[in-house]
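Researcher: Quick test of sequence recovery. Tokens follow.
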């Protein structure tokens, strides 16, 4: 059994002990899970990366021109490898802005990749890495005086459920000074068949991604999940815009994690992920609820995705 954090074990025990079993989606992204997610990003059915990149390439100049600052901090939450963001940064610089880029991510390794990608493309841009949980590391930037653009890309807002999305955006608003900006990537409501296909692809890549969470528990916590006894199921409710993923127990079975035992009934599910979709009207309402003075939406040609700009 590999050494693992107490937090991972505690979260798994808590989730599997609940009446309605669940596992946090934040644990999808170990080394193997991250590689599978790269496959998902290239799937024909998974429209999000293509749509977001279309907006970045075709409308970043217009987005940058909505922001009146000549000099500003660009603070990106969950920045990842920066391969998309560098496109936006380049356009912002072409629009005449002087930037300082602060990528925040829980993975120090991915931030090193981010810095290399950005430095190769924009060698004169100052990049200051902030590894760790961005809920905490963002506070280290509160005392800086330049105007701010906070970026939250890739439809990560969809991982927040119910009122937690409002609380999160209010937190961003609280971090900003009057006149600052917030740019958020959002997966929009669309044909339910299109969304359903993205979470139930024909090649079963999403299924492998979901099942890897059980594999990770086996690898790192010494669990004995038999992956043959579980299936993947993805749903989408077009009324509330919520997509969810589950792992389904295919039989009555017991799973052991050293010191803990969990029984599964036939067809009992483990909830693993939520991905909220929004309409443009939903986003206007969200801006109003969270204290922003106005918002503007930049969409791809099919209106599948939005980069939504909020001003405090």
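Model:
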């Amino acid at each position: 059994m590999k050494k693992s954090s107490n937090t991972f074990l505690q979260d798994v025990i808590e989730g599997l002990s609940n009446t309605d079993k669940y596992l946090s989606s934040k644990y999808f992204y170990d080394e193997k899970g991250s590689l599978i997610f790269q496959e998902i990003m290239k799937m024909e059915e998974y429209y999000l990366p293509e749509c977001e990149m279309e907006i970045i390439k075709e409308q970043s100049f217009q987005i940058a021109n909505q922001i009146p600052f000549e000099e500003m901090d660009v603070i990106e939450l969950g920045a990842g490898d920066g391969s998309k963001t560098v496109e936006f940064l380049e356009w912002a610089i072409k629009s005449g802005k002087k930037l300082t880029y602060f990528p925040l991510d829980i993975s120090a390794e991915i931030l090193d990749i981010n810095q290399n990608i950005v430095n190769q493309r924009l060698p004169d841009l100052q990049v200051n890495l902030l590894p760790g949980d961005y809920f905490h590391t963002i506070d280290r930037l509160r005392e800086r005086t330049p105007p701010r653009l906070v970026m939250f890309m890739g439809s990560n807002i969809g991982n927040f459920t119910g009122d937690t999305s409002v609380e999160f955006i209010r937190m961003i608003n609280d971090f900003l000074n009057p006149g600052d900006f917030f740019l958020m990537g959002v997966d929009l409501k669309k044909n339910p068949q299109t969304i359903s296909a993205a979470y139930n692809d024909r090649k079963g890549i999403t299924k492998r991604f979901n099942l890897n969470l059980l594999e990770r528990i086996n690898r790192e916590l010494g669990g004995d999940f038999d992956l043959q006894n579980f299936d993947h199921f993805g749903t989408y409710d077009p009324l509330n815009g919520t997509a969810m993923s589950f792992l389904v127990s295919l039989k009555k079975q017991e799973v052991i994690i050293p010191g803990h035992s969990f029984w599964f009934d036939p067809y009992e599910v483990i909830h693993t992920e939520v991905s909220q979709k929004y309409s443009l009207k939903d986003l206007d309402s969200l801006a109003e609820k969270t204290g922003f003075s106005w918002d503007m939406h930049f969409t791809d040609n099919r209106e599948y995705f939005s980069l939504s700009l909020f001003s405090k």
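The CA atoms of residues 93 and 256 lie 54 Å apart.
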